[in-house]
Amino acid sequence: VQLVESGGGLVQAGGSLRLSCTASVRTFSNYVMGWFRQAPGKEREFVAAISASGDSTYYADSLKGRFTISRDDAKNTVYLLMDSLKPEDTAVYYCSAAAYSDFPPFEWEYDYWGQGTQVTVSS
Known about the structure:
The chain is mainly β.
């Protein structure tokens, strides 16, 4: 399984970005999909997850209301819409996929990871 993120870039504080992650897998709809991020000098942290069915979503408490995860199984793609961006959202954002897990998965349960896409929010 390969995961390829896109959509990162430079944005001003208060702006929005939509990240995409496309998976090269036949059974995309079987996977729980997640987003994580890692800021410079910090550990990787959980951002959001969406169940295999798409019926359930889960967010880091600090990001609720600003970030929205969604998926389009016809396109093998998961999205992360980020609104009201802040400089502290600056990080490399990673897409991840978990084949078999409860929802939401623990970080160690994710089987596959993308290479990441840089998001930089200027003040």
